[in-house]
Amino acid sequence: MMLLVRLVSRISVLVVILANLSYQLDDLGVPNYSCPGDLMKPSKNVPTNVNSVRPADIKVVMNLGDSLSAGNGAGAPQGDPLAVILQYRGLACWGGGEKTLEQHVTIPNILKKYNPNLFGYAVGIGSPNVWEIAQLNVAMPGAKADDLPRQARQLVALLQQHTEKVNMNDDWKLLNIFIGGNDMCGYCSDPTLAPSICVSHIQEAIRIIYDNVPRVIVSLTGMLQLQVLRQTDATKAFCKDLHAGIGECPCEGHPEFNNTFIQGSCIEYAMDELDLSNSQTFDKDDFTLVTQPFMQYMDTPPLFPNGTINMGFFAPDCFHFSQWGHAVVSTWLWKNMMEPVGHKTMQGSISTPALPLACPDSNCPFIRTNLNSRDCSKSELADLGVPNYSCPGDLMKPSKTIPTNVNSVRPADIKVVMNLGDSLSAGNGAGAPQDDPLAVVLQYRGLACWGGGDKTLDEHASISNILKKYNPNLFGYSMGIGSPNVWEIAQLNVAMPEAFFVRIGHT
Ligand SMILES: *[C@@H]1O[C@H](CO)[C@@H](O)[C@H](O)[C@H]1NC(C)=O
Ligand SMILES: *[C@@H]1O[C@H](CO)[C@@H](O)[C@H](O)[C@H]1NC(C)=O
Ligand SMILES: *[C@@H]1O[C@H](CO)[C@@H](O)[C@H](O)[C@H]1NC(C)=O
Ligand SMILES: *[C@@H]1O[C@H](CO)[C@@H](O)[C@H](O)[C@H]1NC(C)=O
Ligand SMILES: CC(=O)N[C@H]1CO[C@H](CO)[C@@H](O)[C@@H]1O
Q: Which residues cross the membrane (predicted)?
């Protein structure tokens, strides 16, 4: 996993050990996935709140991680040790989109079935700097958590470069992060790899995304149990030789790193990740972080029903996942994504896939977030749009020539809207979730009757939205949440909430 250079130098050893490995390069697809009714359909309108995003609303998938996310060895043919250094990125659970869901389960392949225009998943074999292959799966073999901020910056740069593919502001994006194997494989000899320090690097990476990319659901796959490797090695001598010989996971064979310690460290890592998302540090209207903990207490190696270890789960190095392994993990991760925070499976299995593949909860058919897990009714604030506004004949057309007299101005002749006013014009609290009185301090300026132009008339009636329908170049209306001095948001709606309170104070 870590030391690919060393891996290559040991390849001759490997060839001897591996030449006669016999395992089956199997795969797992779900040919008949279907959910009741409209559960997997996209929302009628692009959601504006992160707590009402349906799976099919996801337009872009992105992935930060290590060699597991890079798919190292996932498609390695039987007895081909060299292939473990190949990044079978397209087969990986988190960011791979090779084949179809019918043939191979990955998170992107599930999403792709319901949004064929999904973008960002990797296809094929290659490193993160080969755009055609990696796309937005920038996971790096050997990466520790302290590499994630760099990966996050790389991802932001790619999103900014590829505006032909990604609509930065409008597209909902799923960011999968999975990291930690290399950290815990080195912790026994490097105290700077303590779980709390590693998770602070994850936090730093998410902060970079939070500050630069709107409309993101970050789905952090919690740390796995490295102890599973040790159990596998205990019965497979060639795996033990491999792991010791290549140095893929030094702590696994380290005598000081006993089972109690290895297990405790991995669980601590996973708990710190859960704490980070539970802190709601990264929750806002269009952004959230959720930790998926299905591997936290998963402490059994992949087993056949008769109790023997199923090496088909692993790539030929007994460490990385095979394509079958990636598919099995994908079924559990998807199940976690559909389960509410606080009630997520914390002990999945790598022996059996989570089938049938989970469906969204009909009472809350969204990717589950901190807030919609607590109260799903907060997700969709009631609104009033007029989807079929039309007036007879030419009544809403602009004048043939720009009128010169104020008494002959038709609605569609208006080019600019402007607004003076108080907190009602500033839209204070207009988009505040029910039972969230604190959100009343937010200026939902784009939703206000007089100067707001969020959404369209079809979705939300406002004076600007009516005018906009007949003059798409209308200017001056505000969009989003912010104060009058944020030009990008307020535009010419300069209404001031304080105006109201100041006056009260002076009378
Ligand atoms: C899907 O197919 C599998 C295997 O072909 C079968 O066992 C399962 O019952 C099917 N599920 C549904 C919902 O049709
Ligand atoms: C395991 O290792 C830890 C830390 O090195 C040590 O405190 C503990 O006593 C060890 N436990 C066993 C059962 O050897
Ligand atoms: C256990 O089951 C697997 C898969 O069916 C088979 O390959 C293996 O030989 C079996 N092992 C024993 C000890 O029965
Ligand atoms: C517009 O749509 C609403 C709801 O879809 C419907 O009740 C109304 O009759 C429609 N009005 C016109 C003029 O078509
Ligand atoms: C390369 C190699 O040694 N292959 C051998 C693997 O084992 C089978 C039978 O177990 C032999 O037939 C192959 O020659």
A: none
